[in-house]
Design goal:
Number of domains: 2
Shape: rod-shaped
Radius of gyration: 47 Å
Distance between the termini: 123 Å
Number of helices: 4
Strand order of the largest sheet: 7-8-9-10-11
Largest sheet: 5 strands, mixed
Number of strands: 11
Structural class: alpha/beta
Length: 261
């Protein structure tokens, strides 16, 4: 007969097993914040066997105690992998329970570190989103402003052309009556602030509705001996502000809607 087999005590005897991620220092428990901490280990309660005499001695000296197996605390960002291979009550050594408490404390500390890193990241992302939103709004406002300016410019040009067209026949009659000559028309005369010049031979006798923003000192000098015809008192004041003293400006009213330049 062979030697008698040694007696062992099996389940429910448990031992805490701790394993690292195997992904370097980054812990998969914390997902995108893994680079903030080193992996402290992942614990699971595993079934084990003890020789009968070792089991009895452990119970007698109070090293093995019966208790409900605590789970290793889960991180808040991801479920704890391989959380517990055993659940419920089991015999476990005080060494395993002490190791469990140590691991639990480390995980709590790391959770705090990750929570801080997460809050900082979220604040940075929120600030970046706000910055992007402000830039989008600024660009939208700039586009709106440019569009409004373009629309105003188009409307002003249309109003200017309308005034010039309505006043040009009057200017031609006046020049004809005053000079006895048959004048010719030079529209959008660059040398006379884009007004319509009523020409007698090679010189302007009258300029209809010049654009005041185009009247610089040189243009003002050329128009000093030329009569300017405008459509309203408001237009006369704007043009006079850019001309030299003594400039002759005549007002021939037209419809109020044609007053804007």
């Amino acid at each position: 007969m062979g030697e008698p087999r040694a007696l062992t005590v099996a389940s429910p005897v448990a031992e805490l097993a701790v394993k690292l991620c195997g992904t370097g220092h980054q812990c998969r428990r914390y997902g995108i914040f893994a680079d903030a901490v080193d992996c402290p280990g992942h614990g699971s309660w595993e079934a084990t066997k003890l020789p009968l005499d070792e089991f009895v001695n452990g119970v007698c000296v109070d090293d093995l105690v019966w208790e409900l197996l605590p789970g290793v605390e889960k991180a808040r960002t991801e479920p704890e992998p391989s959380m517990s291979a055993m659940t419920g009550g089991a015999w476990a050594s005080r060494r395993s329970r002490s190791r469990y408490n140590e691991l639990l404390n480390v995980i709590k500390q790391l959770n705090s570190v990750v929570a801080t890193a997460r809050a900082e990241r979220y604040r940075a992302e929120a600030a970046e989103r706000e910055k992007t939103l402000r830039e989008v709004r600024r660009r939208q406002e700039e586009i709106r402003r440019q569009q409004q300016e373009k629309e105003r410019h188009v409307a002003n040009v249309a109003a200017l052309v309308e005034r010039q067209q309505r006043l040009t026949p009057t200017a031609v009659r006046w020049v004809t009556d005053q000079t006895g000559a048959v004048p010719w028309i030079l529209p959008a005369d660059f040398e006379h602030a884009m007004g319509v010049s009523i020409m007698v031979e090679h010189a302007p006798a009258m300029v209809v509705c010049p654009v005041e923003s185009r009247i610089d000192d040189e243009v003002a000098g050329r128009m000093l001996n030329v009569t300017i015809l405008v459509a309203s008192d408001a237009e006369r004041r704007r043009v006079a502000d850019r001309c030299r003293p003594g400039q002759r400006i005549v007002v021939q009213p037209v419809a109020p809607s044609a007053d804007s330049v």
